[in-house]
Design brief:
Layout: E1 4-7, E2 13-16, H1 23-26, H2 29-35, H3 37-40, E3 45-55, E4 59-67, E5 74-80, H4 86-89, H5 92-105, E6 116-122, E7 127-133, E8 141-142, H6 151-165, H7 178-184, H8 190-197, H9 212-227, E9 232-234, E10 243-246, E11 249-252, E12 259-261, H10 263-274, H11 277-297, H12 305-324, H13 331-348, H14 350-353
Parallel strand pairs: 2-6
Antiparallel strand pairs: 1-2, 3-4, 4-5, 5-7, 6-7, 8-10, 9-12, 10-11
Length: 356
């Protein structure tokens, strides 16, 4: 196998070469050996042991490697679109985006993220896999998507998001405004979206908020307003399932929706995804104030409390729309997030604020 390698800013090694399409290919010692050559000192791989396979949209595999001439094993996690159908494989550009995050941004961010050792990127074919150290082997625990956060938990995760948001100086052309892309997308038509909202995910949400045409109009209005506001570096998908805990604090994973946009897109989505509805209602304004204070401590210019509150109330639409169109995730997760975020849209009268 022929690969060329590049290293950005003392970060992981990026390999330009064939990207495996199956789990068997990804754990083949002959494929792995050059990917991990800078870790092994150029040694071959004597054995590969699969420890855990987690299949969501992308596949994450924890595995242990023993290099030739060594007794000890090294534990890693590889993430990519492995053993997926053709429709899911079209999401390859998001894997390239995640690889670019680890290659170009993670090494210079004051942010708790998994230690990435290598990426393999096929830019022409728009596919990539990312190889990280195994956080579980290092004592970390991953949150479940449906873990109910307390207000203190949310404050800890908001503090991590603020460290990301404060680095708008790192924005580059390859980091796109995802809200605008979502507003323009056509692969989920209003008719399909209405069918989804009329199903179990829409239970308990008022008919006017379950209205697909109105939701699409609200997303477009939000994207237009957001584009005119100061742009920040955003995670884009910071629900509890994309967080982990260590003795030092919380960390962030899953950078496939890395984007630029207004700070409120991340904050409103995050709080209303991780907090049960009653906790969000009671604590969100206090948490927003704490977040604004942290951002000002990072030297960022932020809006006054009333303007920030208005932007937050509008931005709830982003997370609601994101989960309303989601199909390739377990139904209980979709239904919980659509329920939490839909109720936030109801509580904040977000559609009316956006003029739809």
């Amino acid at each position: 196998m022929t690969m060329t390698a590049t290293q950005f800013m003392n970060g992981p090694v990026e390999h330009a070469g064939p990207v495996p399409a199956t789990l068997v290919e990804a754990l083949n010692p002959y494929w792995l050996a050059p990917v991990l050559a800078h870790v092994s000192g150029g040694k071959g791989i004597a054995s590969v042991e699969t420890l855990e396979v987690i299949r969501t949209v992308a596949t994450k595999v924890r595995f242990a490697v023993r290099f030739e001439g060594e007794q000890a094993t090294h534990q890693f996690c590889i993430k990519g679109l492995l053993d997926v159908d053709e429709g899911t494989a079209r999401g390859g550009p998001t894997c390239v985006l995640e690889a670019d995050f680890y290659n170009r941004l993670a090494p210079v961010l004051d942010l708790r993220v998994p230690p990435c050792v290598a990426t393999v990127v096929d830019r022409k074919g728009q596919q990539a896999v990312t190889v990280m150290r195994d956080l579980i082997a290092q004592g970390a625990s991953f949150c479940s998507a449906l873990d109910p956060f307390t207000a203190d938990d949310a404050l800890a995760s908001l503090t991590q998001l603020a460290r990301l948001h404060a680095r708008a100086d790192l924005l580059a052309d390859w980091i796109a405004p995802r809200a605008a892309q979502l507003a323009r997308m056509t692969y989920v038509t209003p008719e399909v979206l209405q069918d989804l909202l009329d199903g179990p995910r829409g239970e308990g949400i008022l008919p006017e908020v379950r209205n697909a045409a109105r939701l699409v109009s609200a997303m477009r209005a939000l994207a237009e307003r957001d584009a005119a506001r100061p742009q920040f570096l955003l995670h884009g998908d910071a629900h509890a399932g994309n967080l982990y805990r260590t003795l030092e604090g919380m960390g962030l994973i899953d950078w496939q929706l890395l984007q630029r946009g207004g700070w409120a897109l991340d904050v409103a989505y995050h709080l209303n995804a991780v907090l049960p509805v009653d906790v969000a209602e009671a604590e969100e304004r206090w948490l927003l104030g704490e977040y604004l204070g942290v951002m000002r401590g990072h030297g960022c210019t932020m809006p006054d409390p009333e303007e920030a509150w208005a932007q937050y109330r509008e931005a709830v639409v982003y997370g609601y729309y994101l989960w309303a169109i989601t199909r390739r995730v377990d139904p209980p997760i979709i239904e919980t997030f659509v329920g939490r975020l839909g109720r936030a849209v109801m509580r904040h009268d977000s559609f009316a604020l956006l003029g739809v």
